[in-house]
Amino acid sequence: MLDSLGPLSVRPLHAPKLIPWLTRFARSGTPQETERISRALSALNARVYEDLIPLLKDIGLSGELRSHGALSVYESEEGYARDSAEWECKRSRGVMVQEISGEEARRLEPSLGRIVCRAVLMPQWSHMNDPKRLVHGIRESLLRNGISLRQGDVTRIEPGPDCVSLIFDGGHRISTEHAVVAAGAWSGVLARRLGEKALLESERGYNATLPNSGVVVHRQLIFAERKFVATPMSCGLRIGGAAEFGGLNARANFRRSRALVELARRYLPDLETEGGTYWAGHRPATPDSLPVIGASPRHPRVFYAFGHGHLGLTQAATTGRLIADLIMRKLPPIDLSPYDIGRFN
User: Looking at the chain, which terminus has fewer C-beta neighbours within 10 angstroms, N or C?
Assistant: First the structure.
């Protein structure tokens, strides 16, 4: 964890602040908790296509979803054996997995090198051509439908009996019937200002996008033992991963992006790395890997939708559907109690 370029890194100055989060994280690792958490994640993920595909159709971006599956690859038999319990858990939750040899993996993905000795194919997996296009598509759809957008820093949320007021930096105020706190890794700050306890940390991830990678990749490749991925996108091959706990204000260490690219060459020997662009982003991580979805226990006009960790895009459409149901006082299609913010008290 002290290796600044390793798959999991904790910045020393931030480590003391992590103690409450890590304490709850440790409690979440028991067999009983793992079973409960996997059930709750499965309930959300089982609805992904049911909610995402109609959204993509509505905004004219159905072609952005690439449903070619994913391939998790291993460079050692030991690494493959260590993950056996994880694959059995996925199977038990309805995930289709198919174990194949290294040679079979290279027939599917000829750019893979000889280092790959085992692989697992997940045919249900999909990914977006470019998440940025999805964000822009949603924004344009909202504007076409008469929604007004205001960008700024919300410094306070003031719930009242008849409305909720949002106070922006500079004093501007917006009053609305309901408010949804969906500010990613910054949501914990807003929740705490409302008097709620939210165990939320920034788990920063890094990536590099190579527009001229020199290799052909047909589906997402997951390098299981090294904990990073390579995803073919319309803007290039995106290589990303890693987990860094350093808080919201620490400067990004883009040596981590470059290290991931160099590591990818172990698996993709012909990879060209020139001309890449580097990026870092704050994943909103809860200690039990479950998002916070539901109404505030203290303020019934405020709703929470954050903490999705690595599954933000995956669970976004479903989370939006669930929050809409709650605001419209409809019965949600799944039990929302596992995602209640009150679990952190």
Answer: C
